[in-house]
Amino acid sequence: MGITIKLFASLREQFARDELKTPDTPATVHDAWLRITGKERPANILAAVNHEYVHFDHPLQEGDEVAFFPPVTGG
Q1: Which pLDDT tens digit goes with each residue over 50-60?
Q2: Coil/strand/helix, residue 65
C-alpha cells in the first residue's frame, strides 16, 4: 500500500509533481524526502504527517500522507 507524498508551492514546481504514491513504506519522513529528491533536505523545509507537523525522524506507517512545505513568505 505504501504512502502518499504531497509537495506544495515551490517544491511542487521544483520537482514537477504535486503528489507521489510509493509502493512501499519508507521508515521515516527523512527517508520519504530522500525517496523523492535524492538529496539531503534544506533546513527550512517543513513536514507534516496526516495533517500534523512532525520532525524528519518521525516514523511512517502504511497509508500515511506526508506533506512537504517550503518556507512561507508574506507581504
Answers
A1: 999 999 999 99
A2: strand
